[in-house]
Design goal:
14 helices; 21 strands; 6-stranded antiparallel β-sheet; 4-stranded parallel β-sheet
Length: about 450
Amino acid sequence: MTLGGAYRHGGDLLAVEYLDRVVSNGIDAAELTAAGDVSPDLFEYPGRLMPNPVFVSAADAVRLARQLQDIHDLLISLPERRFAGNRAEFGRVLGLSEFQDAIVERATGKPPLLARADLYRTDTGFTLLELNTGSSLGGFQCAEINRAMVCHPILADFVQEKRLSWADTAERLIGTALALHAERIGPAATVALVDWPDTFAFHQPRIEVMARLCRRSGVEAFTCHLGELTGGTGGLSYRGRDIDVVFRFFLLEYVDSAAGVELLQPLLRAAESGAVTLLSPPDADMYGYKAGLALLSEMVHTADLDSRERESVTALVPWTRMLNATIEDPSGEPVDAARFAIARQSELILKPVSLHGGSGIVAGWTVEAEEWRRCVEHALDGPYILQQRVRPAPDLALVKETIGGMYCNWGVFLTPTATGEAEYSGCFLRASPDPDVDVISYDTGALLGACMTGP
């Protein structure tokens, strides 16, 4: 097979060679995904696995982690840089409620570097759609997809021959929690994976997967919800079991009432007293709200960034603005936001600041003009952003037993090394055959894929 004209990245060369072997040996997709379809750790994904991995070079992974750390650190610094240290004012820009503000104001210190970046790979490199921060990150099972895929001998041989590897994302996440606890208190004996009471029944099977992965690594872990925790002078417990580390799976956005604030108090008091380690504090979530990227996009044209920061923002962040009555267009000129959005409909996407999983997103190129106008006018001066459309380049894939293309959302995890530097910690890959799809996510029908790193 000859794809010289289509070569864009080092990973493509590996994909060409691997897919050539698959096709020439007459191996069908069902064979390649069979182990994943029956894996208990991938119980959510039967029939939803992409039959081949995508590949990224080690150099690209290292460079991407460095740039994403710059973005993460900039987001964490926004209250100081843009709001004179006033996190409440920053919270108003994000659309936080008074109840969420009450939780944020309790937080002290810098949250740990823990994130999943959602990116498209384009013809010129990676582009960042959003950076999800905190510990409640979906897709932590991605290493299990890789393990299931290498059960097939053709990929197992290819991995060994090409010296491919992948990060164990779940192990890195729990390792971050244990390292924080050891630094503050000492060795941890018990980890509680904690969700919100209203969502626990739905999320528990998925969180149980993380508990199994923890136990596989030799860490005692169990799942529960916040209402089952008991606080006291000795710290925090669950049904008589003392807890060392709380791995938070619930979101800041769930705190929407005075009762929710009260529900959090035993956990917050235990964390503040040093009795338990909380991964991660609820305020970490707000740095992943999409308004942060809008503020960074604005700062590119100011003296607020140094040369390295400007380089990382320019490389990764597409034009993004809060949907106020007047905004700056890509050239830096102030314009009427509604008129601008209506005139550029096919090149813009409208996103709520805080929702996740594709909720509330309207892509201009997928709706009629009148609907787009209504959506823009409804969102004006609300907690919404406008973002430039990003067009993903296809990644090579097995499609109907031949070599074709899939359009991928790369969910790249970041965790800190012992020195605090960001480390590429795996990728939760979601893929669609549609180049014009509005959101590539599991909830919109995407396939899930393995991602492997070359030497």
